[in-house]
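Researcher: Here's the sequence for the chain we discussed earlier.
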Amino acid sequence: MLIIGITGTLGAGKGTIVEYLVREREFVSFSVRGFISREIEKRGMPVNRDSMVIVANDLRARHSSSYIVDCLFEEARLTGKNCVIESIRTPGEIESLRVKGSFYLFAVDADPFTRYTRISERKSETDRIDYETFIANEEREMTSEDPNHQNLRKCIEMADYVFTNDQSVADLETSVALVLDQIGMQETHEELY
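Model: Thanks. This is the structure I predict for it:
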C-alpha cells in the first residue's frame, strides 16, 4: 500500500492532484479538511477557516500533533489500497506517516494572486474572503513554533516532491504522472490483450 500525502498553500492545486490520483491511478482519498469539518459540525460551530484552525489545533493539542492523519491513516490502511491524504499541515503529521510504510509527500504551490483567483472561483464555504484576508490567513498558517499548529512552510520543505502550479491542470497532471512513474507507480489503466 502506497500513501501519498498532499501539502501546500491555499488554492495551489492540492485537490487537483487528489482528483488525478483518484481518477487515473485508482487511489482512495482521505481529507484532513473533511475530518475537521465533521468535528466542527459535531461541536455546532460555523464551518469556516477560523473554525478549521481552532478545531484542528485543539485536536492536535489534546491528542498529538499527528492525531488527525493518524486517524485517517487507520481508515486508509483498512482499504488495503493506495491512498492519498490531503491537506497535511504539520511536521508531526509528516513524521508520523513516514514511519508507517511506503509514504511520499507531495507539495504544491503557486503565485498568491493565481491561488486567490482559484479559491474565489470555487466558492466553497471557507473561501468567501477578500484578498487581504486570504493573505492574512495564509501568513497565520505558514509558520509556528507550536508543533500542534499549522506550519506549511516547514511541510513544504519536508516534501519529497514540490510542484509549482502556475500553468494548466494538464501541466500539473503531467508533472504528477512523471513523478509517479519515477517512484515506480505505473498507470493502472493499461489495456489488457
